[in-house]
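Hi everyone, sorry if this is the wrong subforum. Our group has a chain we'd like a structural model of before ordering constructs, and none of us has done structure prediction before. Sequence below.
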Amino acid sequence: MTQKRRHVVILDDDGDLRREISQMLELGGHDVVALSDACLLDPAAFDGVDVLILDLMMPGVDGLDVLRRLGKWRAPPKLVLMTGHGEAVLRGTTAAAERQGLTVIGGLAKPFDPDQLSALLDAVPEEARAGAAPTDPPSTLIRSALEAALRDNSLKVAFQPIVRSDTLQFAGAEALLLGELPEIGKVSPPAIVAAAMTEPAIISVLSVEVARQAAAACAEWLAAGYQGQVSVNLPLTVLLERSTVEAITAITKSAGLPPQQVTFELTEDSLYDSSASALSTLVKLRLAGFGLALDDVGQRSSGLTQLANLPVTELKIDIEIVRSARTWSKARDIFAALAGLGRRLNLAVVAEGIETPQDVALARAHCVDFLQGYLISHKRPLSELMKLLPRLSSDTRQRMETLEASQGG
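Answer:
Right subforum, don't worry. Here is the predicted structure as tokens:
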């Protein structure tokens, strides 16, 4: 049983392996075309293919050249890479492919169990299967619509729940932009933030507004009997403003919320600003009672030597580390190292991007405290989150059981 019928092309010179993979995927409900000649891989003939399973080393075929050709396609398929030359080659090729704008959903070092391939296809989240995202409007139009939304209090904020690793019980939620602006409709949150960053005053007002809605939401679920903090992203530029601590302290007080219920998430770039003003502001936030989380840890791990200087209370392992750990042993080692570092520093550790039961197992194996990701829930408006909370842990367990049964079938 598979999550979704896929159109798959296999490019490999090993006839026995092609047949074995083809039969397995066809039994799983996928449409499969098996090729031994890279010259047959033509964009006109294979437009609409979901996944290409590519052997990197075939007689007379340069796998990297195939990737360069795919990078020129209008809508290239997602990739599963195979090689008998070890994980280091797979990882380096994956990085090269991604720099060309290609999507690699996994790599397999030969020999491998064909069930590993099936698990890779089934583990890809629906968001990654949906194809290219719609093009965002121009930044000037986004900025104008954002200013209007901030003026009339129509900015929409959503919340993605965070659960305890061991029990899957609600432990809080992260406040995130919903990705809609009233005047222009759907806009990607990164585009909204990028447009706001062009004007320091706008990003400041945006950050304060998200914090205001986050505090109000946290107060609501606490009043309903659900214990959990709220997390809010805080850009470094806003953090460095003198009025920041006073503004967010006033917001939490107005909501009737203890500062201990609010954690501000700092990007790993904050590690690189060791200025007196940055460190002083962080200390002020901690003295006021707020929590501080270091977000996206693992993107720029060379900066971790600065971690000892920051009064953070929480470490969030980056989503790409979690996703890579499904395939790469080195990524699993990095995950384990980051989780261990967090424990040794007495920090709460959160794993982001939890999308499969295997992700949960990895987090539990390394004593990660909290989980966040699509397996638990996507981000939701507060009204939807409140309806979800009574069944959050049971729904998550059911999804895990369904996925495990699917992969086992």
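For your construct planning: The chain is about 45% helix and 20% strand. Residues 7-129 form a domain with the Rossmann fold fold (CATH 3.40.50.2300).
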